Amino acid sequence: MKIVIDTMGGDNGSNATVGGILKFLESHKDVEIIAVGDEQELEPLKDKCKIIASSSILPMECSVMQAMRDKQSSMYKAIDALLNENADAIVSSGSTGAFLSLNTLKVKKIDGVLRPALITPFPTKIKGKYTVLLDIGASTENKPEELAQFAKMGQAYCKAVYDNPHPNFYIVSNGAEEGKGTPLTKEAYQICKDYEGFKGYIEGRYIFNGDVDVAVFDGFTGNVFLKGCEGLAKTMSLMIKEAFTSSTSSKIGYLFAKKGFTSFKETMDYKKVGGALLIGVNKIAVKAHGNSTPDSFKCAIEIAYKLAKHDAVNQIKKEFVQ
Fold this sequence. Notes:
Elements (H helix, E strand, L loop, with lengths): L1 E5 L6 H15 L4 E6 L12 E4 L10 H6 L4 H11 L4 E4 L3 H12 L9 E7 L6 E5 L9 H19 L6 E4 L10 H10 L5 E5 L11 E3 L2 H26 L3 H20 L7 E5 L4 E5 L5 H16 L2 H7 L4
Helix pairs in contact: 1-9, 3-4, 5-6
């Protein structure tokens, strides 16, 4: 297996990506890593990876034209390596907009896919059970037919990654009744009515109870929802920490509750997911968190590895055979 890594562009630069690659390689001898970036910064990877030098980094607020024109950027050269080396996957923590644009324009959409989506598993209250969310920000406006396709791609993802032969899916709305929602979700509901596994609408508060396999959003709503969840998780963690360090008695109480809170933290740690898959293009393209640490970037590579092992792209293609 070959995985291409764009090592530049994230908030923490090559410190996170190089560290993540080294951690990943400790337990994966069956993978060739192709690392693209500044040769000096990639020195620790010498003799462990194939290194491709690049001379520039695409900014986070990168336009489509800028991404396409800067052929010396680490991301552009990584996409080229993905195609030229016939690699299985690419991982980057750089500009989301540039990553989506370059993959869509150069790697191209799977035949029949109207619009690729960003998809990610998110932890639920049941340890080890994830709800798959999409679209979480590949686009800001969608058509009803695109939401219906997101559902199919989400189900294909569940089948490939979680060996779930009959995943259910819901459209996220402001109520469970059929008459609820926006014109977009109402029309998508009618399209999905006869789809296998469709369970109707679901309110955001019920998504993580462990019963939902796939939750379908338009890209704008999904991105707002995901970032809200991440912010809430971080705030709750800080509030719990403050509560248990506010007095001597609370510190003693924490000692008794520590095991439970450690388990809670592990269950709800979204960073273990590592990143999101751009689903609907002809290669596995994983967008890691922009603020990735070595551990979370390693998790992003693990996602790419697992999806390649499960032949996820071809699994998704099967859903769109005409």
